[in-house]
Prior knowledge:
The chain has 77 residues and is mostly loops. The protein has one helix at 2-7; strands at 29-30, 37-38. The termini are close together.
Amino acid sequence: MTHMCTQFGLSISNTMMEVRGRILPPLLQYGGRQTKQQAIPNQVSGICGKQFHTGVEIRVWGYGLFCTTTHMSREML
């Protein structure tokens, strides 16, 4: 695995990496299950009288990978 990674210029580390990011505005859709319409940012949309749901902030999240060692070896994890 390590030889293959170096051929492509990749390296693997056991430590977490910090990256810069930004919060993207959410996609706003309205109109129910059958007729979804997308509101375009900074433009006037016909949203009067439409019903919206209140979103929530996700404060903590995680990622889990569940697979057997037949798909991925312990060294790869």
